[in-house]
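Fresh eyes needed here. I'd like your take on this protein's tokenised backbone:
***
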Amino acid sequence: MSLREIAWAQRLSLKYLEQLAMALSRAGLVRAERGPGGGYRLARPAEDITVREVVEAMEGPLCVSGRQRAGNGAEVSATQHVWERVAEAVASVLSQTVLADLRDAERAAVAGAAPGYQI
């Protein structure tokens, strides 16, 4: 699809979408095709691209590292382990979700949103 078509369909700014496309292209997730009928295509099948890859292409690596410690060996925060578990859970969900899952969910939502008529 062309970026213009995607921007219109998703109600995004074309300039913003161009920035996103460059980041995704640098990460090897999409490739540009020039000429008539050109646009952007996924570099791999949607079933093989995780949402984590997309997020990391846009934002950089996810931080799911171990605990930080204060100089005396005490934990920096009593809740640090909770936030580590949250970060690990987010990373897990993003790693287990592929673009095909999002595509299929969108298609199901559109199919279920048939217009209703009332009298």
The two ends are 39 Å apart (CA to CA).
